[in-house]
Give the backbone structure.
Amino acid sequence: MDLAQTKVALDTLWVVVAACLVFFMNAGFAMLETGLCQAKNAVNILAKNFIVFAVSSIAFWVIGFGLMFGDGTSLVGLSGFMLGGADNSPATGDAYQGVFASLNWTGVPLAAKFFFQLVFAGTAATIVSGVVAERIKFLSFILFSFFLVALIYPVGGHWAWGGGWLGTAGFKDFAGSTVVHSVGGWAALTGVMILGPRIGKYSSTGKVQPIPGHNMSFATLGTLILWLGWFGFNPGSTMAADVAAITTVALNTNMAAAGGCLAATAVAWIVLGKPDLSMILNGTLAGLVAITAPCAFVSLGSSVIIGLLAGVLVVFAVLFFDRVKLDDPVGALSVHLVNGAFGTLAVGLFATDGGLFTGGGFALTLTQIKGIVAVGAFTAVASAVVWYALKVTIGIRVTPEEEREGLDTGEHGMEAYPGFTAAPSGALQMSKA
Amino acid sequence: MKKLEAIVRPHLMDAVKNALQEVGVVGMTVTEVKGFGRQKGHTETYRGSEYKVEFLPKVKIEVALPDELVDQAVEAVLKTAATGKFGDGKVFVSSLEEVVRIRTGERGDAAL
C-alpha cells in the first residue's frame, strides 16, 4: 500500500470504530432512561430505545441522508437518496466527483460516511424517547421517530453540515450540539407540550410530586456508557485519524464532562440540600452535550469552564421544566435542549479563533445564535406538525387506565420483572399529597 | 401458649433472631413488611422535590412459644432491637389457642 492508501485505511478504521462507540450509546440511553422511569414501564422504554435505531437506519438510508448531505439547494439536499447517485469516495476535495460534495472533506468510503452519520441521526431520535416516556403510545413513538430521522433532523443538518446556508454563513457545530442534541431536544419539547405531564406528577394544587426512577444502578451504568460513547461522538467527528485533532477533542470532551459532573453535584448539594445522583448523572451529560459543538475550537481550560457552566445550567433547568409542568422523567430537555443551545453559543464565546472572550468580537457569537434559533424554530414547528398529525389520527397517549397499570402490560403484554410485586409508586410508597 | 410478633428494623433482624434462639426459641417465621407508626414515615427528595414515604420497610418475626418463655423472649427483643430512636418497632404478645405439628399431628405444647 502506498501512503495515500494507508491514510484511507487508517481514517476509515477510525471512523468505523468511532461509529461503533456512538452506536453503543443506544445502550447508554436505554439504561439511563429505564433506570429513571418506573418499573412498570421498563419493557416499554427498553423497547422504544431498541427499536428506534432500526427505524432510524431505514429512515436515514431511504430519505434522511440524501436530504442532509446530498447536493441540492442551500435549504435541502435533493440527491443521493438510498445512497444512489455518483460518488468516487474516498477521493477528496476537487478530486471528488459525486452527489455528496458536502462530505468531500473526509477521505473515507461513502459507506463509512453514511454509517457514521447514521449513528448520529439515531442519537437525535433516542433523545425524544426519555422525555415522552411513561405515557406515549408505542406505535406513535415509532412513527414520530421515522419522520424525525427521515425529514426533520436532516434539514437542520443540511443547513449546518450539508452545504446549506448556515454552514456557508460560518456557523460552527463540530459534532452536533445543535444539529443532533438540540434537534432531539426541540422535537421532545413539542412532544411533551402536546402530550402533557404523567398522571400523578402534579397534585390538584399544582405541586410537584416526584415519581422516582426505579433503578439508579441502571441510570449510572447508562451514563457511563454514554460518557464512553462520547469519545466516539466528538473525536470521531474529525472523520480522519488526525492524531492531534482526535486527542485534543477527546481530552476536551472528557474535561467538560468532569466539569459538568462536579458543578451539578455542588449545585444540587447547595441548592437542593443533597447531592442527588440523578442530578450528578445529568450534569455529566450536560457537560458532554455542551462541549459537543466547541470541542475542536476551544482550549482545554475553556472546556472545563463550559462543562462547569453546563453542570450549573442543567440543575436549574430541571427545576424550571418541573415548575412549568413540562414533565420530563429523565431530564433530557435540560441536558440536550438547554445545553445543546448553550454549547453552540459557547463556540461563539470561547473559540480560540474568533471567540468573543478571546478578542474575536461578536460576529461568530451572532452567527451561532442565528443557527440556534433557526434550527430550533424549524425543528419545533416541524415536530409540532408531526406530533399533532399523529394525535388527531392514531392518538399519541395511552389511556389513563393503561398509564396507571403500566405500559409494559398495556403496550407489550409483558413485564420487565415478572414474579416481583413492585410497590407501585403513588399507591403504597408515597402519600397522595 | 403465646404468640409473639416483633416488628423490628431490618438490619437488626439477625441480632434479634440470635437472642431469641439463646433464650430457647426453636422456630420462627420472618416476613418483610411495610408500615408506619406515630411519625408517619419520613420524607425523601428526588430531583429537588420532597415526597413522603409513609410505609417504611420492617421485618416481622413471629414466634409461638410456651408461656414461661414469654418474658425472656420479650426481653431478648428489647435488648437487641432497641436503638432509642423513632422507628424501633413494636412487640405484640397474644394468646395462642392451638398449635398442631402437621407432620405428626401433635397438638399443644408438644407441637411447639
Q: What stands out?
A: The mean pLDDT of chain B is 95. The domain at 2-111 of chain B is CATH 3.30.70.120 (Alpha-Beta Plaits). Chain B touches chain A at residues 34, 41, 44-55 (CB under 8 Å).
